[in-house]
Batch of 4 targets.
Target 1
Amino acid sequence: MGQKIQKILEAIKPEAAYFTEHDGHRGGTLVVNLKDVSEVPLFAEPWFLTFHAIVEFRVAMTPEDLARANLDALGKKWA
């Protein structure tokens, strides 16, 4: 298992990787930078095909990303 995980990590090069339990099962959290949503399979398929894993993605933004979101205009439109 360790060699397979190492092979995947070398291929996808996450910014950070943490391994823990998740709901009583082996789990991990990887931090990756997606430039486009078409990269999702690049990061997910190795885990699906190697371990039949459940893979979930959470979107996070930097302060700069949030500044580009134009929250003032959205607030005026939806408030």
Target 2
Amino acid sequence: MLSLSAYGRAIILKGGAPMFLYLVQHGEAKSEEEDPSRGLTDKGFRDVARIALFCREQAVRPDRIHASGKKRALQTAQVFSDHLKPENGMSVTDGLAPLDDPDTWARRVAGMNEDIMLAGHLPFMAKLAGQLLCGDKEKIFVDFRMGGIVCLKRFADGRWAIEWMVVPEMVR
């Protein structure tokens, strides 16, 4: 069984604890013809639920979950919220749509101390990861998968690193 215990939150760095940012690409969505609002498919719900359950078992605990206003991201965020029960709840937040500028969220997370989860879309998620990891939103460092989660860690000096990644195919 895959375990994240080696990446436990007990790590304390000089200057304080790191911040964890969980980036979640929404699960598989229905086609526009099938559902104009593009909600999750049954497979999408199952994949997201498996990842959310795995995260709960590994003690992943974001303080808050932010989701784009699109139905597929909201449904994804709700599944994670139901499993992880973030202390500060879940909210619909601007700036997470597929074509939004990642600089907005890069600035926001720079001033945050709580661990947060963002449920959104490509290409936004890939661009935000590139911006945080190397300062270039056009560099793609993470191969996001529908329903998958990527954990980024911000060190006390402001640098970011990929802590871990889990995709539905890894968890049964």
Target 3
Amino acid sequence: MLKDKAESEYLYNLPTTFVLPDEAVDRLRAAAGTILNDSPEFQRLLRQAGAKVVPKDSLTGPAAQ
């Protein structure tokens, strides 16, 4: 679902273990966010729920960590 083919290839070829390098975890989380943000179905669900995604950068307190 990612438009960035190089990133998609990298993520697809990650080993399937429960121990991943920090960079791999960060990239997986970023890819998940990208996929959700690009999903028309997810955007429709947000609109129907009257919700919005709040960027982590705008959070303060324990939730931002």
Target 4
Amino acid sequence: MAQRRLAEFEGFRLYRTYLKERNYTLQNVRDHLNRDQYIPLDTLTSAVDYPRTTDEATAFYTESERLINSLYYQHGGIGPLMKFLKLQSEGARFDSAWRDVYGTKSSDPQVFENKFIAYLTKAEE
């Protein structure tokens, strides 16, 4: 699933760029979730099956894209992100992979998760 999250992020990023260059916008794209839709990062990053309902799928894909977006743009770019996703794809849990990759530059995984929740649900404010 880690590779799928990266592929979704990259495809979405390139598609947005393509549309922006042509003065188009994406319709029905969610950048935020309601707090009650939030999936804990350890659960999200260890998922092995696809969500079963439309609401679960929307939350899963929105949160996955925003997580990769946050790690890419706010936590060091593609190098650390690829290392993090590789560790995840090899079975490392979120907090372990986080400490290995981002632990020297950022706070602990729970502090990141709390900030991520605020980032992901900011539309509620």
